[in-house]
Amino acid sequence: MEENPGSVKTDFIREKVARDVESGKFGKEVTTRFPPEPNGYLHIGHVKAICVDFGVAEEFGGVCHLRMDDTNPTKEDTEYVDSIQEDIHWLGFDWGSHFYYASDYFDRMYDCAVELIKRGKAYVCALTPEEWKEYCGDLFKPGANPPGRDNSIEENLDLFARMRKGEFADGERTLRAKIDMASPNIHMRDPVIYRVRHTSHFRQGDKWCVYPMYDFAHCLEDAFEGVTHSLCTLEFEIHRPLYDWVLQSLDWKNPPEQTEFSRLNLTYTVMSKRKLLQLVKEGYVAGWDDPRMPTICGLRRRGYTPSSLRKFAQAVGVTKFNSVTDAALLEYCVREELNATAPRFMAVLDPLKVVIENYPEGKTEWMEAVNNPEDASAGTRLVPFGREIYIERSDFMENPPKKFFRLQVGGEVRLRYTYIIKCERVIKDAGGNIVELRCTYDPATRGGSTPDGRKVKGTIHYVACREAKKGEARLYDRLFNVENPGADGVDFLTQLNPDSLTVRECYIEPELAKCAVGTSVQFERIGYFVADRDATADRPVFNRTVTLKDSWAKLQE
Ligand code: ATP
Ligand code: MG
Fold first, then answer.
1. Does residue 38's CB lie within 6 angstroms of at least one atom of ligand 1?
2. Alpha carbons within 13 A on the beta-carbon side of 136
3. What is the helix, strand, coil percentage profile of the chain, to 5?
4. Other CB atoms closer than 10 Å to residue 210's CB: what's the count?
């Protein structure tokens, strides 16, 4: 990995597209498509595909279509259609007027199937899946021609029409492409291209009881739309001969070309839609947009920004090699961005009360605080200070080790933007727990300066008790506690991280309570958070996006 993960500019796909543009191969503008099946919410893997599909089109001055690949009637739903559009727009891409449904092509696809029959390239087969096993061979053994393969064209046309009319039950007949039962590529051994499914389609209703198979449908969808470059993931590489066969068999002029790249896999999460749906349906997470989910809406609610996700996709790059990306890289991308953009605030998550005995009762001083040391244009704000404040419990130690530079009895520490204080004594409850610290402050150190040149190594944050607002910090962590959930036949649900969410009531400085929903901030010394929209909460909620600790940079050392 290079120092700047955004610096990867070209790859084998972009090189191919550049060559095709140069040679004028397709005689039209570069046209790609992103074809999600509307049976779930989009996830971080789709972000990679979206960045490739829309990104390539954008870079070459072409267009990218958004197509709902809704040819499977059983699991699709408009809820997903809506979320898919919202998520792609949020990521910063636009399909203009090119929004399509594969199901709108059912008539044309049916006509193409009829045309294949007329050309002697498809036939109706009566074998059950069980019976088919006797003919299909395996990786080491060629298949054998099944009965019905030499039906006349007239017979096939009649049977296919009857399939469409509903005369056969599910599975009783299929339409197969007549290719080569001895092909070394099993996908070319007379694959099914149409099947009977007596199921309503969410857009087509009961108009159809025959539905096209993916391999037949997808290349036609691309061809109908005038797609030039059909970019997809590696598992389709072995299907490519069929993609080309269908279009060649129909004498399609200037057919689209499929090019495959590797899927994104990410540690500590799952990406299969089936598993994500299970997490939602069975209540392991609060919904598709739970901030622990790898979905786009979950990442958004977690505080990821569109640019951080696009940068991540760019850092991952486009290759032909399957690999697993470290979740730390994703965290790195958002941390880098938020470091430059997020305003800093003070919040105390595990409060310990401090009383400053020589500070006047009832007095509040407003200290000037820098909003973002990385960005002077972010300006300053005023932070209150008074006789009673909260500090983090972990910033005090009764019996500290040698190099503890925060607060200890008899020791001094700097309060961020404020004064130097000294701890005089500890107050404990009956059980011996520390409940309060008694301190004094040095009025000569306003703003944290030390006019006498004495050394105070530690600086801690605080919130003034009187002006503090209550908030809720939701500390999210990885959803699973193993890198590859579900590997080696283990039930992925047993690998959920029980500590993936910790809720803390916290004290926040007054300005922080005014943040608009969706605003990213840094809680000084704690982490990056985003103001959440949870309408059921009676106080401002902040979701932790990432901690400040950069484990990615560490890994690279
Ligand atoms: P699932 O197998 O879980 O149903 P899918 O890959 O079939 O998911 P689709 O909605 O069909 O999901 O995907 C739309 C597009 O996104 C496809 O072109 C697919 O190749 C791509 N895609 C899906 N997952 C990933 C991933 N992890 N990395 C890169 N691209 C992906
Ligand atoms: Mg799919």
1. no
2. 19
3. 35, 25, 45
4. 22
How far, in Å, from the CA of 475 to the mean position of ligand 1?
30
d(CA 208, CA 354): 73
Answer yes or no: are the C-beta atoms of 181 and 144 closer than 8 Å: yes
> How many residues are recorded in the chain?
557
For the record, the structure tokens of 333 come out as 């991308």
Ligand 1: does its nearest atom lie under 6 Å from the Cβ of 49? yes
pLDDT at residue number 1: 36
Q: Has 33 been annotated as catalytic?
A: no
Alpha-helical (H) ranges within 392-499 are none
Please tell me the distance from the alpha carbon of residue 553 to that of residue 277, in angstroms, as a whole number.
33
Whether 335 and 26 have beta carbons less than 8 Å apart is answered as: no
Looking at residue 556, what is its pLDDT? 67
Residue 442, beta-bridge partner list: 420
Q: Which domains does the chain have, with CATH numbers?
A: 107-212 (3.90.800.10), 265-341+473-557 (1.10.1160.10), 345-464 (2.40.240.10)
Q: Is 7 helix (H, G, I), strand (E, B) or coil?
A: helix
CA dihedral 383, 384, 387, 389 (to 10 degrees): -60
- In this structure, is the dihedral angle defined by the CA atoms of residues 16, 22, 25 and 28, taken in order, positive or negative? positive
DSSP, collapsed to helix, strand or coil, labels residue 102 as: helix
- Confidence at residue 330, expressed as pLDDT on a 0 to 100 scale: 97
Burial of 533-543, coded b for 16+ CB within 10 Å and e otherwise, reads ebeeeeebbbb
pLDDT in tens, 468-478: 999 999 999 99
Using only the alpha carbons of the chain, give its radius of gyration: 31
Instruction: Name the stretches of the chain with pLDDT < 70.
Output: 1-8, 553-557
Question: Could you tell me which of 329, 367, 305, 68 has the C-alpha nearest to residue 203?
Answer: 68
> How confident is the model at residue 5, as a pLDDT?
46
How do beta strands 463-464 and 388-392 pair?
antiparallel
**Is residue 263 flagged as an active site residue?**
yes
Q: What is the dihedral of CA 242, 247, 251, 254, to 10 degrees?
A: -130
DSSP calls for 186-214: GGGSS-EEEEE----BTTTBTS-SEEE-H
**Helix (H/G/I), strand (E/B), else coil: 422:** strand
SS (H, E, C) 513-527: HHCCCCCEEEECCCE
Question: Given this model, what pLDDT does residue 114 score?
Answer: 98
293: exposed, middle or buried (Cβ count in 10 Å: 0-12, 13-18, 19+): buried
The one catalytic residue among 37, 58, 388, 424: 37
Of all protein residues, whose CA lies closest to atom 30 belonging to ligand 1?
A: 49
Q: Is the CB of 36 under 6 A from ligand 1?
A: yes
In b/e form, how buried is each residue of 310-343, taking b as 16+ CB within 10 angstroms? bbbbbbbbbeeeeeebbbbbbbbbbbbbbbebbb
By DSSP bridging, strand 541-547 and strand 351-356 are unpaired
For 234-266, b/e burial (b = at least 16 CB within 10 A) is eebeebbebbbbbbebbebeebbbbbbbbebeb
The helix/strand/coil state of 3 is coil
Q: Is the pTM of this model over 0.85?
A: yes
> Looking at residue 549, what is its pLDDT?
86
